[in-house]
Write a structure and sequence with these properties.
By secondary structure, the protein is of the alpha/beta class. It has three domains: 1-30, no CATH class; 34-134 and 235-336, D-Maltodextrin-Binding Protein, domain 2 (3-Layer(aba) Sandwich); 136-232, D-Maltodextrin-Binding Protein, domain 2. The protein has 13 helices and twelve strands. It has a five-stranded mixed sheet. A five-stranded mixed sheet has the order 9-8-10-7-11. α9 crosses α12 (302-309). The longest helix is centred in the last third of the chain and has 20 residues, at 245-264.
Length: 346
């Protein structure tokens, strides 16, 4: 039997432990992110979303996916692969969304999903950033004459199963010693039709989704009332699998780059005029110095590609949410009274 040299044996052992094979250093296997390497290999970033929510993810008349969640996916693709056209959207439901991410069916989940301790601690998943600060609300018919959620003791409420909304409603009614009957329907259009047809007294989900649904009713929107009660905190975020820290970094810093661009007044339309900027923060953002992209395992133009192809966070909001009639409020950047605050890119 051929003897394996001490050095060769060490290389073999190291290779097996690192999953790299005989004598092959881990760095040679790729970027340091298995998710990024898989996306590069297939030439696509796979993004899980709903595909049924106006303002967040809904195909237009040409079949093009539109919305805040969809553009969040495109931004990550622009950073990772340099081309938003390499985004592949995968429709998920409230019940299979986490499994789709856990199993690798998608590379990230951008589906109006609430950041909670239970989800982050128990699912093997984590939230990279919050793209929408929201809260659970109630939509009722104007004809019901209801002015507050506290007037809905004994009400039937349409809600999707397996959502944080379901838990928030239970907590609210228990807190106020009230009762309700849930009407649990998975399919979103079916759920909304059940509410419109009178099968339930109220429709409950994130207030943003209720506002966009009401807006989508056109002339009949005035027949519906979004109650003022916001009964929970719902920070909606983009999720990735735990264990791939480099991919987590890419997704997180993509959003930070979009916020930074808005803070600096850099848009998809004027970004090229900033390429001669002497502002050190701008130069690092746009890849002109500092090797920030290299630190992420990306091209140094990663953030430039995000801004040029998708826009800053304000542009994404104005394109998708403003037409729904929803004020930006706490979703604004910090300098305008909102919660979106960008750590420094340096």
């Amino acid at each position: 039997m051929r003897r394996v040299s001490r050095i060769g044996g060490l290389a073999l052992l190291t290779g097996l432990l690192m999953g790299t094979g005989w004598g092959q250093p881990a760095a040679a296997q790729g970027s340091g992110s298995t998710t990024l390497d898989a996306a590069k290999g297939r030439g696509q970033v796979l993004c899980g979303l709903s595909g049924q929510v106006p303002g967040f993810s809904l195909p237009d008349s040409q079949g093009v996916m539109k919305g805040l969640d969809a553009d969040s996916c495109r931004a990550v693709t622009a950073a990772a692969l340099g081309d938003v056209s390499k985004t592949k959207f995968v429709a998920t439901t409230t019940q299979n969304r986490f499994t789709a991410l856990q199993s690798g069916e998608v590379d990230l989940l951008s589906r109006s999903t609430t950041w909670t301790l239970g989800r982050e601690a128990n699912l093997g998943l984590e939230f990279a950033w919050v793209n929408y600060y929201d809260g659970t609300g109630f939509l009722v018919k104007k004809s019901a004459g209801v002015k507050s959620a506290k007037e809905m003791d004994g009400a039937t409420i349409c809600v999707q199963p397996g959502t944080s909304t379901e838990l928030a409603i239970n907590d609210f009614y228990r807190l106020h010693n009230m009762k309700f009957t849930p009407i649990l329907i998975q399919d979103l259009p079916e759920l909304q039709n059940a509410f419109l047809s009178g099968r339930c007294d109220a429709y409950s989900t994130d207030a943003s989704a209720l506002a966009t649904f009401r807006f989508s009713q056109g002339p009949k929107a005035d027949d519906l009332v979004l109650l003022p009660d916001i009964i929970s905190k719902e920070p909606l975020g983009v999720m990735v699998r735990k264990g791939d820290d480099k991919w987590f970094d890419i997704v997180r810093w993509t959003f930070i780059a979009m916020i930074t661009a808005e803070e600096k007044g850099i848009t998809s339309a004027n970004v090229d005029t900033f390429m001669t900027s002497t502002d050190p923060d701008v130069r690092r953002l746009l890849g002109l110095e500092g090797d920030m992209g290299k630190a992420l395992g990306l091209d140094n133009k990663w953030a430039y590609n995000v801004i040029k192809q998708v826009g800053n966070l304000g542009e994404v909001w104005d394109r998708n949410i403003t037409p729904m009639g929803v004020p930006r409020g706490i979703n604004n950047i910090w300098s305008k009274g909102g919660l979106q605050y960008a750590p420094p890119i340096r």
